[in-house]
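pls design
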């Protein structure tokens, strides 16, 4: 459709079989809030928020796919925040699309699989705040794409000696003169 879409799920439990779980909104300014929701798929999971200035907030709960897990926002200045939730799949793709977008992954319970963040064209900002320890084989690749992009990574503290290991690669596939990019990596005190 072409109208704005609003969805709020609190404490919901959705389970899909091998056919997968798919949610697609239209090309307007959509608002999606998942609070302590558990979405599970025995196949793929694709949450496509379409074009428009979308606001997506995922707090707590989990999104788990046996195959690929994809969160996509199309053209528009999108804001996607995932806090305290677990994202898991063979692959996990967070594709922000065109526009000046903001993606915040904060204090996740887990980010498991081969994870990719794609900024797309525009002035994008990606914030990775205190990512939990990755399991063997877990990776995170961040690609800002075209435009001036900012990537901020805040790591867990390790004062007590219990360090956390990450496998994070930051790339920029944008043209050589498509803008200045910033990578800011900071350590924090003990959590």
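designed seq:
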């Amino acid at each position: 459709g072409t109208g704005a879409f609003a969805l709020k799920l609190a404490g919901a439990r959705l389970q899909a079989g091998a056919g997968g779980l798919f949610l697609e909104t239209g090309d307007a300014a959509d608002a999606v809030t998942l609070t302590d929701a558990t979405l599970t798929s025995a196949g793929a999971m694709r949450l496509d928020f379409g074009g428009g200035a979308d606001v997506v907030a995922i707090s707590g709960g989990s999104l788990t796919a046996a195959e690929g897990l994809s969160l996509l926002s199309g053209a528009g200045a999108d804001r996607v925040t995932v806090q305290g939730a677990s994202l898991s799949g063979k692959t996990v793709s967070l594709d922000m699309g065109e526009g000046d977008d903001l993606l915040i992954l904060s204090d996740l319970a887990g980010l498991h699989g081969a994870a990719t963040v794609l900024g797309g064209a525009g002035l994008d900002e990606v914030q990775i705040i205190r990512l939990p320890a990755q399991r063997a084989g877990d990776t995170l690749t961040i690609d800002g794409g075209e435009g001036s992009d900012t990537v901020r990574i805040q790591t867990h503290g390790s004062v007590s000696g219990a360090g956390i290991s990450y496998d994070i690669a930051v790339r920029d596939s944008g043209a050589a003169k498509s803008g200045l990019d910033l990578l800011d990596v900071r350590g924090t005190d003990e959590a």
